[in-house]
Design a protein that fits this description.
The two termini are 23 Å apart. The relative contact order is 0.17. The longest helix has 23 residues. Helix 3 runs antiparallel to helix 4. By secondary structure, the chain is mainly α. The chain contains five helices and no strands. 59% of the residues lie in helices and 0% in strands.
Length: 147
């Protein structure tokens, strides 16, 4: 059970990191996959634009190891990224502990990034993109059919 919770926490942190991508690119959901220039979208420093390296992209550890600053320009990087990843890890650990391995845990993992993104959008009083609700509905229907 401990190993399951650890793995769920790691997966949850990664899902929280993906939720931060959804939140940061909510104004144009196509940018989740594609950048403005048609290339694959990559995570960048919001201040200097430097593409983040693999160490910077490790959920929770990347932010902590850089002490919440860009490794290039030393500009502060908001703690909200750490919060989204931490919430994702905590929710998945709790879900794994209470639900065990099974279909309910898969449903939780599939919907977690959308729930974090929608909650953050509502918290910051920003409009929730309609595409979020559509994706959540498609995932929910697909999981009902499969499970």
């Amino acid at each position: 059970m401990i190993f399951t919770c650890i793995m769920a926490g790691l997966i949850g942190a990664a899902l929280g990191s993906f939720a931060s991508v959804l939140i940061g690119r909510a104004d144009d959901p196509r940018r989740v996959i594609w950048a403005e220039d048609g290339q694959a979208a990559r995570s960048r420093c919001p201040h200097c634009g430097r593409t983040l390296t693999w160490i910077d992209l490790l959920p929770l550890l990347g932010w902590v190891s850089a002490r919440g600053r860009c490794r290039s320009c030393r500009a502060p990087i908001g703690y909200r990224y750490l919060v989204y990843e931490g919430v994702g890890a905590a929710v998945m650990i709790l879900a794994a502990w209470t639900l065990g391995i099974g279909g309910a845990l898969v449903i939780c993992a599939a919907l977690l990034p959308l729930f974090i993104a929608i909650t953050a959008q509502l918290y910051f009083r920003r409009p929730v993109p309609t595409v979020y609700w559509g994706i959540a509905g498609v995932i929910a229907v697909a999981l009902i059919v499969v499970l």
